[in-house]
Design goal:
Helix 2 crosses helix 12 and helix 2 packs antiparallel against helix 13. The chain is of the alpha+beta class and about 400 residues long. It is about 55% helix and about 15% strand. The chain has a 6-stranded mixed barrel. It has 2 domains: about 180 residues, no CATH class; about 170 residues, no CATH class. The chain has 14 helices and 10 strands.
Length: about 400
């Protein structure tokens, strides 16, 4: 028999039992849709992080206290090291990197409590110099940046991220010119940042507020900067700048008292971590495909039993065991492929719907993986019923009631 004849016979059998065929495909549909949806969430998260790092610029070097190994089990714990940095380190790095390093800036951070007319919100409070925003590429929505005069005179000026501004003043109210209380100290809002999302080190920058570093040191009794940021003239100079920064810091500190990290190193490490999560999500969802395959095998075994007389009749008129085997195997593969196609459609649709709330990305490899896996499931779990059908004795099959 020609392959087209096998397909026609299989499609006829599937159409004859529509409800049973749909229930058979349900496991494959759910499995494939789950794989597509979960992998799209993982890929979307990876894409989002990459975009945020790109927005911060690719020519930045971070100097953090303590020895931080991003490949270790708990790098976050290592980031709690006590800072031994001095403001003089900033000038030393800038002088030693002349022609390569464009700007250097210190920063310190702690948790703060903001209040305004009875409204209260917590935020990451960052003490900065006037050049911090230009290095980090943070755009001002309204108002102005912290100036050199603000830093020199330790003014009580504050720039709000989009989240604390919304929490205290509402979504579209301009907070510039108003006064807020930060840890019981009155500050004037001089700037309001555009929403930028998570990126760089730590929490989402939308939840940050920024004050002059001198003011920060007085209010929070922290004289040593917790982080030093180095910006090069172009991205090709980042490795050289990192080397200069490390040599400069080693003149005063030990090797285990600080860590110099390039932004691409951070991004690569985070992407590796997110890739593992994405694959793990896809693997977990693939378990449901195995369940769907078992469902196909069970239903096909039932189908063989129900069609025993049909098999006996076909053998009596000349059908070979191989032809019977191919018919049932093709039927199982068709159920898997159709279920896989429907699952891909539903998974992509679900990803698009979820994309209104979080970033998602349907990747070609997840589609190919799901479709290929559903085909393999059809072959593996369809072969046993097909072999059983091909081995039926035609006389016994014709007598079957």
């Amino acid at each position: 028999m020609a392959i087209l004849e096998f397909i026609k016979l299989s499609l006829t059998a599937i159409k004859t039992n529509k409800i049973r065929s749909l229930l058979t495909m349900l496991g494959i549909i759910i499995g494939v849709a789950s794989v597509i949806l979960l992998v799209s969430i993982g890929s979307g998260l990876q894409s989002f992080v990459t975009q945020q790092f790109a927005a911060l610029g690719s020519n930045t070097v971070y100097i953090m206290p303590g020895k931080i190994d991003l490949k270790s089990g708990n790098p976050g714990q290592q980031m709690l090291s006590i800072s031994k940095f001095e403001l003089s380190d900033v000038g030393d790095i800038l002088r030693n990197g002349a022609g390569i390093i464009k700007e250097v800036t210190p920063a310190s951070a702690t948790n703060g409590l903001l209040t305004y007319k009875g409204e209260t919100t917590s935020s990451e409070t960052v003490g900065i110099w006037e050049n911090y925003f230009s290095i980090q590429n943070f755009p001002i929505r309204k108002g102005k940046n912290i100036s050199q005069a603000d830093v020199e005179r330790a003014r009580k000026a504050i720039v709000l991220g989009s989240k604390p501004a919304e929490d205290l003043f509402g979504k579209d109210v301009n907070p510039v010119g108003k006064f807020v209380t930060l840890n019981n100290i009155r500050f004037e809002v001089i700037g309001w940042l555009e929403s930028k999302g998570g990126g760089g080190l730590g929490a989402s920058i939308d939840n940050h507020v920024f004050i002059p570093l001198t003011t920060f040191s007085r209010q929070f009794n922290q004289s040593k900067p917790y982080m030093i940021l180095v910006q090069t003239f172009n991205a090709d100079q980042v490795s050289d700048a990192a080397s200069i920064a490390k040599k400069t810091m080693l003149r005063r500190l030990k090797d285990d008292e600080f860590t110099v990290m390039e932004q691409k190193e951070l991004l690569n490490t985070i992407n590796q971590f997110l890739s593992v999560i994405t694959v793990a999500l896809g693997g977990i969802a693939s378990i449901s495909l195995l369940v769907g395959g078992i469902g196909i095998m069970n239903i096909m075994l039932v189908s063989v039993t129900e069609r025993t007389r049909e098999i006996g009749l076909r053998k009596a008129v000349g059908a070979t065991p191989n032809e019977i085997l191919f018919q049932f195997l093709i039927e199982a593969i068709i159920l898997s492929l159709v279920g896989g196609a429907i699952g891909i459609f539903l998974g992509a649709l679900g990803s698009m719907a979820l994309g209104n709330f979080i970033e998602t990305s349907v990747t070609p490899w997840s589609i190919m993986l799901s479709f290929g896996f559903s085909s393999i499931v059809g072959i593996i779990f369809g072969i046993t019923p097909a072999i059983r059908a091909s081995k039926l004795d035609p006389i016994e099959a014709l007598r079957y009631e």
